[in-house]
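Could you help me review a protein record that somebody else here produced? What it holds is a sequence and that sequence's fold in token form. I need someone to confirm that the token line plausibly describes how this chain folds. Take the sequence as given and treat only the tokens as open to question. This is what I was given:
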Amino acid sequence: MAVERTLILLKPDALQRGLCGEVLSRLEKRGLQIAGLKMIQLDKAKCDEHYAHLVSKPFYPKLAAFMTSAPVVALVAEGVDAVNVLRAMCGPTNARTALPGTIRGDYSLSTQYNIIHASDSLETAHKEVARFFKKEELHAWKRAMDAFTAADDEKK
């Protein structure tokens, strides 16, 4: 399995409800490493670009109003199979079908107020990371614990 990078947006409801730290903690506890992190205010143009596949949908105006209503926390997480790991952690977009133990199952209030956006494929992740982060805003670094974990795995 290859190390991947994926985009995460902690949506305005995560910020408004004080859940950013909780979600970040869950990502780190799962073994994902933060390669980039910032708070940004989405404008309509960036929102339209990010959600281009939804712009023609009848619900999009409410989604755009929500996503531009307060800042979002944008981050890039890195890890082995990061896209799939994160998608599993998030649970389905529809909060009513998200299982307890997933981020959306534990914290979402509705399909729109579902706390988190995560890239849905590696191809999408590459595009989304580039949309929100400049290369110089991303950092490659090694956790000291990774060396210990790798050494333990080699002994087995």
In short: The helical segments are 12-16, 20-29, 44-50, 60-67, 82-90, 103-107, 122-132, 144-155. The beta strands are 3-10, 33-40, 72-80, 116-118. The domain at 3-137 is CATH 3.30.70.141 (Alpha-Beta Plaits).
